[in-house]
Amino acid sequence: MNKTCLLIPVYDHPDCLGELIRGLSVTGLHCLLVNDGSAAHCSQLMRDIAGELPWVSLVERARNGGKGAAVKTGMAEAVRLGYTHVLQVDADGQHELADIPRLLALSAEHPLAVISGEPYFTGAPKLRYYGRYMTHIWVWINTLSMDIRDSMCGFRVYPLQSSLQVIRSNRVGDHMDFDPEILVRLHWVGVPVIPLRTLVSYPIDGISHFRGFWDNLLISWMHTRLFFGMLLRLPRLLKRRWGNNG
C-alpha cells in the first residue's frame, strides 16, 4: 500500500507559497518543504509555515544546489520518515492542484510506476514551449519509444525505492536537467511512466529560475550523455521494444 507525502522544492517563491500551502491543505497529505538556499525572507516564511502547521515539515539545504538537488534531498527525507512515494509539486503555482486525487488514484493502481503530468498550457511563452518539444524529441530518441509524453513537467508521483536506486547508481543532474533525466533513467530500468493530462498555467508575473544559457547548456549535455547511454543499452532496449510489439 502506498504511503505518499507531498514534496515541494522551494527557491525564493515567497509570493506563491502561502496560497500553494492553503490549496494543498485539503489533500490530507503530509508536506515536505525543501528550502534550497532561499533568501532570508522566503526561508523565514517556510519556517513560520512549518512551525504553525503540524502537517508541514521543513528540510533546509545550506546553499542553493538546484531543483534536482532539492528533490533528491526531499526524497531521502521522505524515506527516512517512512514514505513509499512522493508527489512532487513545483513551488511557482503553475500546477492544477485539483488533479492531485487523480495522480494519487493512478499511483495506487500502479504503485511501481511514475505518474507524470502531461501538460496542456495557458500563457506558455513560445520559446519555452518549443524548447520543451525539442527535449521531448531527444527523450523519445533516448528511450526508443514515446512512452514518456512529457519529460519536463514537475507534477508527478515517484516510487521512492526505484527512484533512489537510480539516483544512487547514476550521476543524475541537480538542476533543471533532473526532471527529464530521471524519467529516462527510470524507463531504462523498466519502471513504467504513466501520463496524466493536466493544466499548467504560466502566471504573467510569475518568477522563473530557469537560467537561460546555463540550464540550456546542462540540458544539452544531459541529452548527449543519455544518447551515449542509450547506445550502450541499445540491444536491451530493442529487445524490450520488439517484445512489447510482439
Describe this structure in words.
It contains 9 helices and 7 strands; from the N terminus they run E-H-E-H-E-H-E-H-E-H-E-H-H-E-H-H. It is an alpha/beta fold. The protein has one domain: Alpha-Beta Complex (Spore Coat Polysaccharide Biosynthesis Protein SpsA, Chain A). A 7-stranded mixed beta sheet has the order 3-2-1-4-6-5-7, with helices on both faces. The chain is globular, with a radius of gyration of 17 Å. The relative contact order is 0.16. The mean pLDDT is 88.
Descriptive keywords:
seven-stranded mixed beta sheet, 246 residues, 9 helices
Helix-strand category: alpha/beta
Low-confidence stretches: none
Number of helices: 9
Named CATH topology = Spore Coat Polysaccharide Biosynthesis Protein SpsA, Chain A
- What profile does the largest beta sheet have? 7 strands, mixed
Alpha-carbon Rg, integer = 17 Å
Q: What is the terminal separation in angstroms?
A: 32 Å
Number of strands: 7
Order of helices and strands: EHEHEHEHEHEHHEHH
Question: What share of the residues does DSSP label as strand, in percent?
Answer: 15-25%
- State the helical fraction: 40-55%
Which CATH first-tier class would you pick?
Answer: Alpha Beta
CATH superfamily: Spore Coat Polysaccharide Biosynthesis Protein SpsA, Chain A
* CATH-level-2 architecture: Alpha-Beta Complex
Shape: globular
Q: How many distinct folded domains?
A: 1
